Hints:
By secondary structure, this protein is of the alpha+beta class. It has 13 helices and seven strands. The protein has helices at 10-22, 46-53, 57-64, 73-83, 87-97, 114-121, 142-148, 161-167, 171-174, 178-195, 200-212, 214-221, 270-295; strands at residues 4-5, 8-9, 128-131, 137-140, 230-237, 241-251, 259-264. Strand 5 (230-237) and strand 6 form a beta hairpin. The protein is elongated. The N and C termini lie far apart (58 Å). The relative contact order is 0.12.
Amino acid sequence: MPRILGGMDQRTELSEFLRSRRGRLSPEDVGLTPHGGRRRVPGLRREELAQLAGVSAAYYTRLEQGRGQNVSSSVLDAIADALRLNPTEREHLEHLVRPVRSSGPVARRQRVRPAVQHLIDSLGDVPAYVVGRRLDILAWNRMARVLLGDFPAFPAQQRNLAWQIFLDPASREIYVEWERKAAEIVAFLRLDAGYYPDDPRLGALVGELSVKSQEFRKLWAAHDVRDKGYGVKRLHHPVVGELTLACETLVLPSDQGQQVITYHAEPGSSSAESLRLLASWSLGAAEAEEPSARSGA
């Protein structure tokens, strides 16, 4: 029986990924002369891809139908070369063909080590949070909560980057380039699906987002994959306005699937000053709330 990946049949996932990558290429892209008259679909035909990879069309067809469990590493490399896959896409293809079985229950609760929480709390004006499997938001510091959203106010199952991007309307106000952020999140989530094919909560998340968000469905169908890294984000906060911040991802090697995400401003920039103002404002707001909380108001 085929295993389920991210709420879908794993054979279907492999088949659709290969077809989507094949569809990106034209014969001219890879130095082939088009033949056979009018093309019914964009991209390379199966036999053309097989020719480039040095395998028979029947062999490649079996792989694209999800029947490639015994494919050799050399053949898989040749197909990846022919499809011009980048390193992240190659890794994803490898996971789809040879899923890694989890060493323990993937649905068990993810925990952040106290030292990691202390680390992000010590970053001062730098917003930072920890994400885990399926983009669950596991921990955050005060500035991340002020800038990106009141994470503890959400139920645990909604404390997830993908859920918040697509189902929390506030995200469209926070991220100035929301469409770009949404595409990145889906690409991260699909890569995660390749790592953890046995995760029922991932399947449930993808199912919920697919039902409730047309934009998610469209992006998910593209089969793009991407790993988290670094970049520049434009964010908006109602108190200080727009900020341009550098985003960095710090992998925690001893904590499987966990990464620290930080946002920082260029020294001396207007965004750095805005972060300082935001930090001061948030401290003042917190101090103003404490007397009310103590009095029971």
